[in-house]
Write a structure and sequence with these properties.
The protein is an alpha/beta fold and 257 residues long. Helix 1 packs across helix 10, helix 3 runs antiparallel to helix 5 and helix 4 packs across helix 5. Adenosine-5'-diphosphate binds next to helix 1, strand 7 and helix 9.
Length: 257
């Protein structure tokens, strides 16, 4: 069973950036191979990782539903082939993109093939990092597999923290089997206020740490340079690595008797 870390949070808070830094951390610590799953319908984890994507699992599902299966090929083999085409391989990690959620109509057959494929696939990797949208539709629909850590990213605002607490609630209700949820406050300019800390405490979410606003992240992003190539001594990378060190090791200790 892989060790799965899923990222969640409202749009623009820094989930994809954090997913990229987490993959950088795991590679740097030889915790490989990693399967990176882009489960945000506005997919851009590939940019942070510096990879080109050819196809998505959503397209494979769509083609199968429309019946665009070449003659002489079974649906299973067609789906398997499309899914393999959607994998992108890199040094230490592979990326797969979920793509658009399903449209109207019945996708049961395609979804059950997809779920089967995902379950087989994740078992080839000791680590899975999943970049999600706030609704977490893909986690609940496409894998029955548990999430060891749900890392909820927030900006420092009151509304950001409220959104993070709601996501934590949703994760509990969706019953996606989260081992432990943590919150990370990203793009901080100053330490969080006592009021913010109190709000998080009351919501029952553990604050794993904060990541400063960092001009280097912004500059890399703006110049189309992959975040994963950021220098390790930059403030945001240092802060993020400190958090990952704490939470990945923490839960490892908790997992082994
Ligand atoms: N700590 C940070 N400092 C500066 N800019 C950041 C930081 N974290 C993220 N950003 C920038 O904020 C924007 C949104 O980040 P992104 O990771 O795409 O958010 P999300 O995936 O949650 O929508 C991007 O332009 C990213 O480069
Ligand atoms: Mg994103």
């Amino acid at each position: 069973m892989p060790y799965t870390i899923a990222l969640a949070g409202k749009g623009g808070c820094g989930k994809t950036t954090m997913a990229g830094l987490l993959i950088k951390y795991l590679v740097a610590n030889n915790k490989t191979p990693i399967l990176a799953v882009d489960a945000d319908c506005n997919a851009n984890l590939n940019e942070v990782l510096g990879l080109e994507v050819r196809d998505t699992l959503g397209n494979a599902r769509e083609d199968m539903k429309k019946g665009v299966v070449p003659g002489g090929m079974t649906k299973d083999i067609f789906m398997e082939m499309k899914l393999e085409e959607a994998m992108v391989e890199a040094e230490g990690f592979d990326l797969i993109v979920m793509g658009q959620p399903e449209g109207a109509g019945c996708y049961c057959a395609a979804n059950s093939l997809l779920t089967g494929f995902m379950e087989k696939l994740v078992n080839n990797y000791p680590y899975v990092v999943m970049d999600n949208e706030a609704g977490m539709e893909h986690i609940s629909r496409l894998t029955t597999h548990n999430v060891d850590i749900l890392l909820i990213v927030s900006d420092p605002s009151r509304r950001g923290i409220q959104a993070a607490l709601r996501i934590d609630d949703l994760a509990r209700k969706l019953n996606i089997g989260v081992g432990k949820s943590y919150m990370v406050i990203n793009q901080v300019k100053e330490p969080p206020s006592e009021m913010a800390l109190e709000m998080i405490r009351k919501g029952g979410l553990e604050l794993a740490g904060t990541v400063p606003e960092d001009r280097t992240i912004y500059e890399f992003d703006f110049n189309g340079r992959p975040t994963i190539e950021m220098p390790e001594d930059s403030a945001s990378v240092q802060a993020a690595f400190g958090i990952f060190n704490k939470i990945v090791d923490d839960s490892r200790k908790a997992a082994s008797p």
